[in-house]
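Section 3.1: Structural characterization of target chains.
Under the original work plan, the team committed to producing a structural model for every single-chain target entering the pipeline before any wet-lab resources were allocated. The record below documents one such target. The sequence was received from the expression subgroup and is listed exactly as submitted; it comprises 242 residues.
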Amino acid sequence: MADYDVTPSGRPPRRSAAGCLSVLVLGAILLVVLIVGFIVVDTLLTVSRPMTDIPEAVGTQVREIINPTPTIIASPQTIIRQVESLSRLETASYTIEKVITAESGEGPLGFLFRDRLLLVAQGQVIAGIDLSRLGVEDVQVVGESVYVTMPAAEIFVATLDNDGTFVYDRQTGVLGQQVDLETLARQEAEDSILQAALEDGILDMAERNGEAYMEGLLRGLGFDEIVFVQGTPAPDQNLGNE
């Protein structure tokens, strides 16, 4: 007698427990593979990212070789050559700004050797009276009047302000810069600033202000009449004509 399938028609066969477990294991394996793959890809990207910075790093090293950063070291030893007591009466101060153009290597081969810069310079010139030059013989008292032979006004300081002085523009040829061009421009700027102050009458101003200061001092001592006599400049005075 033949066997017949008694399973109801249209009902799917039941999935065994072993099959479900296999699906779960396969899913877990796939999840682990995805996680590991993500970690590997992220690691590779992290490792390869610095490689994109190599051209910039090489460019920085080349610039350091062509234009190395100067190293400046001050000696720890200090030698004091001279100490002086000053009796200087500063009576006039000028702050001046000048624009200096310096250039070299111009000509047919300028594209090779040209070096041109524009320096914006700021400096200070201070003038006054050196009271240490005033001797006993320069002060004559007659009754309530006093006659004072004042020392000539002189330049005390003529210098650039390093914080306010800078190279605004510089153009160089193929073969580079002239090392001392900026130094020469700074020297010219210092001389120009001093001459500008002299032409504007800084010594005359220093003289007038010095006399006004001395007049106030002497009137405070009880003198009614003060007469100033201009002294002859001494050979060692700085009149800005050196």
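Residues 88-230 form one domain.
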